[in-house]
Model the fold of this input.
Amino acid sequence: RPRHVLSHAEEQDPDVQRVHGKRGVTAAMAPKKDGAEKKKKKGGLKKSEPAMDAFDEPEHVIVRPDNQLVLTEKELDEEITKQLTANNPNAPANLARYNEKERAFKFEPTVDQLVVHYAVDGFLLHNESDEAARQVALEELEAKTMAEWVASIDPAAAKKAKEAEEGAEAGAEGADAGADGGDAAKEGDADADANAGEDADVPTGDDSKQLRNQFNFADRASQTVNNPMRDRESETEPPATSAFSESATQWAIYDAYMEDQERMALQREIQKKNKLAAKEGGKKDKTNEALPVKQKKPELMAGAPMTKAVRVMERMVNQNSYDDIAQDFKYWEDQSDQFREGEGTLLPLWKFYNEKAKRRHVTAICWNPEYTDLFAVGYGSFDFVKQMSGLICCYSLKNPSHPEYAFTTESGVMCLDFHPSHSSLLAVGLYDGSVLVYDVRNKMNRPIRQCDVKTGKHTDPVWQVKWQPRDVSEKDLVFTSVSSDGRVTRWTMSKSELVYQDVMELKLVADAEVGDDENRDARPPDVGDGPDDDAALGSLAGGCCIDFNKEFDHLFVVGTEEGRVHKCSTAYNSQYLETYAGHHMAVYTVKWNEHHPRAFLSASADWTVKLWDHGFAKPAMSFDLNSAVGDVAWSPLSTTTFAAVTSDGKVHVYDLHENKHEPMCEQKIVRKAKLTKIAFNPVHPVILVGDDRGCVTSLKLSPNLRKGDNDPARLEALVEVALKGEE
Done:
């Protein structure tokens, strides 16, 4: 029905109202005759007046709500800015997450406010989109191509289709004209106009181009032909089977072995004949040649003699550059030691640093047993959050500027050790639990032996590896590793791989099994809560360090994260020979004395270094260093001298024969860094200390710090006196 046109029945109904407009609410009604109302009041109409004309313009009255504000023009012109925020009332406002970096719970500053009330996937495309335009163009192209194909096959049918299309277009134009005529007839009869409007709304011609809704969407659909399913079956005869049996006897095995040996000998003979034939053929070819073949001369700058000459030249240049340090290394003696008894000093010499070792900790230092100027340094990280690749550098005192050899590993290096007899073999333990064996003579950056998950790899970091000296008759080389997974593993170097064997599983020991009741009550509660502790059931103690006795190679001591030190034997893997409870925190280092078979040292994070006699469960002596002890080492120059490094950057040197209570030297080596490792040179009075910034510093002992000899009776007397005093 055309807009603003009412039927005759609607015109006569006074209650009919229409609402028009966008901002206000308007009501349309028939105009009233004021004069007629006045005449009715006076007593009636004197003369009948014509009724309201149906084609008169309706009167628009603006209806205002009762609660609407009445604003002035100035207030209406005022611009008010409002900001609308869509916040989800059900979203949490106090959401907290655990921050691994800061190890604390932190509130989330932003919370997702998006709420999806309804979502559905449709198959409609907007009429103005690019994809809809491409689809319409494709349909037109298909229709045009089909019309051309029909015209080429049947011209008569194409002609009829063209006439039908023209007739449809003419009908569509007539329909449009009828619609215009209906609009012009609004001033006539209302019923006729309504019928004309209805006729105008009737779709004529092809209605595929008309829009189906007010959003101008284009429909698309496709239908494919599904291939019919077919079942195919086949039946085959089962393969023939036969049963056989044989007994493996000793003579049958021997006969098979001899046949295999004969076959291999025959193959070797054939290979020799082929080689001889090839050589004879090559000689004949050489005699037939008229001109001799020129041999290539070896390159002068890439040969071994040139490499050796360049290395010697580099060492000479470094010796000239560090001439004052070289002079101190050879000739320096602190003359003030003559006037101060019981005190000594450390003279800093070279510093060994590599750019590749930036942001890495010095995790291991080991001197080479054959070349006393060569030592290996392992770089890794003691912080489990900041792990990175590892690095191994072999330095020489003759060339402090650059390492002689360098190897990289995928995980951080935690420990390393040179073989005492084969000085080129270096055993390495990594943070990921792998153990490697390098041959430093090889120029290739890969180990000659490496374990994996199938060959007994540890599940936790390997904290220490130790070669075990073997007899000359034993060909296999053996070393032992200890890890936080509670395993003490022996590794044997076979021809092609590392063969492992678990020597000991470090089981947790309850407090009631160690020491007396007084010591148990004095220990902190975190060391252990007794045999009924459910957390200790089935779990293993984490091993941190290991060392073998120098006289009895089957005895070894292991330090654990719980503060225990266990004496074990390779012959008994079911239980400990002895357990020593003196530390309250993790034991980082245990070291047997080089010359005394009963004494060993232990260093812990509880700030103490303790001296033990392995026949007694109590420590003979205890030394408090006022900071966490990173490492401790015996001096090879004196039986009663040892040195330790602490996290405050100090080196403490003790000589028990001179002073059993105070260190002879307490010297700060680095600032704003922690010392992690220490190692004595086996021949020279030099020690190496490493810090957590990747730097290794060499220090020379003053004369007072290298007094004494290697007589084990001196240490034996000190230990006996200390144990009697404890009793």
About this structure: The mean pLDDT is 78.
